[in-house]
Amino acid sequence: MIQISQTAAEKIKNLKAEEKRENSDFLRVEVKKGGCSGLSYKMNFDHDLKSTDKTFEHFGERVVVDQQSFMYLIGMTLDYQGGLNGKGFIFQNPNAAKNCGCGASFNV
């Protein structure tokens, strides 16, 4: 399962409105090779749901993960931190053995 914090759900909703992406049904989160730690997170708005995708909904927002990425993200919580020293979206991933300093890439 993947959790979405209320703060992250609110930010997703706001970003959809700002980018005029209200017709995008969900936020797709993927894991790709790359980044300083070996694997990196990729997020984009999407509306094309595949039969093998895993869907998670919290606070009215949906996050969709492809089957291969899901192996790396089981148990993850997507959060958001703002403010002067805010980091943006935060991936609290229990499968990550090592994270880079910026939090955008990890290794298992």
Walk me through what this model shows:
The protein is α+β, with helices and mostly antiparallel strands and 108 residues long. It has a single domain (3-107), classed as Sandwich (Hypothetical Protein Aq_1857, Chain: A), CATH 2.60.300. The chain has helices spanning 6-18, 67-73; strands at residues 3-4, 26-33, 39-46, 54-58, 61-65, 77-81, 88-92, 98-99, 105-107. The strands form 2 sheets. It has a 6-stranded mixed beta sheet. Strands 1-6-7 form a 3-stranded mixed beta sheet. A hairpin with a 6-residue loop joins strand 6 (77-81) and strand 7. It is globular and about 35 Å long.
> Globular, elongated, flat, extended or rod-shaped: what is the shape?
globular
Strand order of the largest sheet: 4-5-2-3-9-8
Provide the gyration radius in Å.
13 Å
Order of helices and strands: EHEEEEHEEEE
- Indicate the proportion of strand residues: 35-45%
What are the segments in which pLDDT stays under 50 over at least 5 consecutive residues? Answer: none
Determine the number of helices (DSSP H or I, runs of at least 4 residues).
Answer: 2
State the distance separating the first and last CA atoms.
Answer: 18 Å
Please give the largest β-sheet. 6 strands, mixed
What level of helicity do the residues show? 10-25%
- CATH fold category name: Hypothetical Protein Aq_1857, Chain: A
User: Structural class of the secondary structure composition?
Assistant: alpha+beta
Number of domains: 1
